[in-house]
Amino acid sequence: MTTEQSRQALHLLPMPVALIGARDGDKHNITTVAWINQCSWTPLQVMVSIAPQRYIHDMIAKSREFMVTIMGEGEEETVFFCGTKSGRGVDKVKELDISTRPGEVIAVPRIKDALANLECKLVQSLVSGDHTIFIGEVVAADYCKDRRPLVLRQGELTTL
Ligand SMILES: Cc1cc2nc3c(=O)[nH]c(=O)nc-3n(C[C@H](O)[C@H](O)[C@H](O)COP(=O)(O)O)c2cc1C
Q1: Quick one: pLDDT at residue 19?
Q2: Ranges of each domain in the chain
Q3: Nearest ligand 1 atom, CA 35
């Protein structure tokens, strides 16, 4: 199988869509990810794969905590903006006028009215290929069920 066939095959895999939030001092950055999943029940853990060149990468490595905000239908523009602009040059939270409130356990803010916010403490990082897998233990969360979660499939944002 050629590399292109392998890439196209992987495109069929539906992936959840989330924003990862992290803080460095007063700076709060949010970045779109699709390579994210639950990876343990006890303790409750999630893994997220982030390229080293992303601004959020070193923010997580340094602060050892991150917020996962699960994105729902109607939030496609935010997903696109946070997945195409870097926090190095743009304050994405300010630019999008995103309302936040403090995290309960970690210093990273939650996003108001989100489908779900998961507060995570970094327990392990693993360099894998051209990305770093950050594994976080979920230490607090909130959720509502008023929208369907977004998924990325064949390069398109959709819902299941
Ligand atoms: C739908 C979508 C999914 C993405 N998934 C990931 C991902 O899983 N891991 C990653 O490192 N970058 C991913 N990106 C790219 C980053 O979100 C993008 O490079 C972003 O601008 C980085 O911002 P930062 O420099 O502020 O961290 C994705 C982008 C989009 C639009």
Answers
A1: 98
A2: 3-159
A3: 8
Counting DSSP H helices and E strands in the chain, the numbers are 4, 12
Q: Express each pLDDT in 77-129 by its tens digit.
A: 999 999 999 999 999 999 999 999 999 999 999 999 999 999 999 999 999 99
Task: Report the predicted TM-score, pTM, of the whole model to 2 decimal places.
Answer: 0.97
Asked whether 150 and 159 are in contact (CB, 8 A), the reply is: yes
CA nearest ligand 1 atom 5, residue: 33
CA angle, 82 then 29 then 113, to 5° = 70
Which CATH class name applies to 3-159? Answer: mainly beta
Neighbour tally for 122: CB within 10 Å: 18
Choose which residue among 31, 71, 154 to substitute to test ligand 1 binding: the one with the highest number of ligand atoms within 8 A of its C-beta.
Answer: 31
Ligand 1, atom nearest to 30 Cα: 26
CA distances for 122 relative to 68, 88, 157, angstroms? 12, 22, 28
Reported as a single tens digit per residue, the pLDDT across 10-51 is: 999 999 999 999 999 999 999 999 999 999 999 999 999 999
Residue 33 Cα to ligand 1 midpoint, Å, equals 5
